[in-house]
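I hope you will forgive my troubling you with a question about protein structure. I should value your view on which stretches of the chain appear to form regular backbone elements. Here, with my thanks, is the record as I have it:
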Amino acid sequence: MNPVESPVPHGRDSALLSLVSVLDGARAGQGGALLLRGEPGLGKTMLLAYAAGHAPDFLVLASRGVEPEAALPWAGLHRLLRPLAHRLPELPPGQAAALREVLDGEVGDGVGCRLPAALLALLDLLAQDGPVLVCVDDADLLDEPSREALAFAARRLGDAAPSAARLGDGSLTMPRPEARTAPDTGGGGAVVLLAMRDDDELPPPGLPVLLLSPLDETACAAVIDDVAPVAVAEGVRLRLAAAAAGNPQAAAELVAALDDDQLRGIRPLPDPLPPSPGLRRAHLRRVLALPEQTRRLLLIAAAEADMDANLLVRAADAAGIEVAALEPAERAGLLRVSVAGVEFRHPLVPAAIYHAAPLAGRRAAHALLAGVLDPGRHPVRRAWHRAAAGLAPDHELAAELEMAAAAARGRGGYAVASAAYERAAELSTGDDGAKARLLAAAARDAWHAGRSVRARDLLDRALPVAPGAAARGELELLRGDIDLRDGRAADAYEALLAAAQRLIPVDPELAIRAMMRAGEAGVYAGDHGRFVQVAAQAAALRGPGRSAQATVMLDYLDALSAIFLGRFDAALRPLRAVLDGAPRFDDPSALIWASIAAMILGDNAQGRVMAGRAVAAARGRGAVTMVPKALEFSAYAEFWTGRHAAATANALEGLRAATETGQGNGACHHLAALALLDAIHGDEETCRLRARTALDRAGLNGLGLPAALSTWALAFLDLSLGRHADAAGRLRGLARAGPGQGHMAVAALSVPTYVEAAVRTGAADAARAAFGTFERWAHSTSSPDNLALAARCRALLSEGAQAEEHFRDALELHAAGDRAFERARTELLYGSLLRRLRRRTQARTELRSALESFERLHADRWAHWTRAELRATGESARPRAEVADGELTPQQRQIARHAAQGATNREIAEQLFLSPRTVEHHLGNIFAKLGIRSRVELTKLLP
């Protein structure tokens, strides 16, 4: 697949405006000129093509500089003028003769000084018939006489241009109030567009300039969507956009290097991503034109990722080169040298320099850097360079790298540690066991650094040489853990259980951890039978010699197994043991177990505290792969305690973190949680978008938990829209769904939603049957929130005075809990009952309280129903608080904040994982709520 340029020059609005302006000027008879400058691959060629495509009424003359002809005088002008030979006789004889000599290839002495004026006269002649556009790409590769002649003509066409003004995307343009104007003969003006690299060594020709800067991430993502042959998965798009570093050609070449399954996210991306060959060649061409001493210093700089100013001076001294030798490279626009150190203008530049150098040159650069680095301050970097300088295995050097890797890991530098362990394995002179141990360490740290593909590659190298059950079991445990986060849950379960069986005889403690992970895979799949099986196997490993952490894991397995078997009372003791024991370990996983235990017990506030600690612990350790999971349970805890805005923020952050670290299953969980929050807030379009996306991913990998959450979200949305039969039907299906499609816990938690929907459709008997299990669980937890929901369900399943009594019980229990949204829903249902009983005064009291809560929580659909009930009591519902005081829903506040900061709809959509159309819909509602008409007013309102 060849890279294809984007048909739309994304992110170049101000540049396009300048091009259109100069073309319009030519149509009005004005001459003009622009010089497009920028790094290779930033889209200069595309902008020239855009200009030509928007000039159908122009005579378009196109040419480009060709490196082999750069030394041939007048070669560039010859290519441009050849199609115009038949017009030369119309010029004055002297000018015609000068241009004829160029076409004949026999330019005599003295003719060169007449050629620029002759070229300008020819353009004026052509413009008498209509506007003319001259596009010359790669003008820096033209022969010098041709370049000077074109620059002369361009300057005259764009004469009297004042100083440059910077536009919004970093482009520079220069207005032309006194630009050269063609005679008023019904013709047009001539425009010259030149494109060249951003190279300080070439003197600016005094032309109006469009300086192209790298695209932002959103524009780069749009390029990827344009050139990709299939729909690109969100996580893949984000990673490619980041790797392209704002260069559209790099983005296109990255897409071209991947197959369709990789672009869709079905197969993992290579790690590292493939290089961009076209850009590498472009940068290397500039490097090869530099002096030898400059190239040597560039290679040394390219071999060290953290080249600071002091190290640069020491390295130059050691090489016997003056630091000033880098000046030609600075003038060529390859890098910047400052007090802070060396900064290459594009990440592909050092890669091009390094890989183009011969092996001996690279080894010499590494040896020099190893000699000047302080072993006390930079042990990892020094050991790394020593390793790169050698080829043969070296036991002492491998040991040095291993020690340096361990030190880096202790500081949370997992990416550095992984690379050091991998190189130590390559240099090790030990047996296969030593190599496998080092590769296993490299894989583990790559996983902690968020590089799941790299971790898998390292595991593939380690497994064949791993000796013994303990080594293989540990590697299989890590493989299963990675699959659990970004693979099929059933496959992860099998791999983790196999690892546990291998580890039981040699390392029972690690076997328990593998079983814990296998149980987690069963939970994610919604396969509770498998969880019960693995919990039973783990119970056999319980004993007096087990560590405190292993005991907590065994208690957790026992507790959830009892719940899945319907023995809620039997789960209470082990759940409390987990809640007491897990927080003693400053370990993100243990704190997540504690959070889950607390929420099952109904102590949602403690669950929120434990989840928050898990997030902090994961971040503190630098274990980026643990952050999305910790944020997942933090979002759940915030949700259960009624903090919907915080839950939304955590889920959005977790979604981005999961996507960036290649954890597709984690991203799926966060999308499902966001869909449920959208349903509560009545955001129908966003809810459906996120729920369907999560359901698609869940179906691909057999993830029952997010599938169930998404189904619940859609059912709750149906309930809020008055589609009670649809809601009941979804939840009936959820209760019957098997592994990979449903989840027992979510089915149980959604029972109050089902009871309400079923009762409203006349299916009270079905609702009563479903309620039994929920009621037993609620009473086992003694949670006032859970008991309140049980009392509300009893009220809905009762009539008359008995229903009233159950509603009053529910409201008393809600008062002791912290789920304000559910309390408001109970008030709405109770108020509706009182209204139907014609006790309007009492009904209004309940309904007013419910409305206040719904408006505060931005539950718009439920506020709508509450106002309708109030009107039915004879009370005129007061205006919405949002309209009066400008309050917005959490989602609307996020969109409004981004819009006020100048983000486009597409940019906001990328940030919040929405569609641009959904963002546009929300902005319309935001403007209506705030009583404004434009983004300008929004900026003033939300500084």
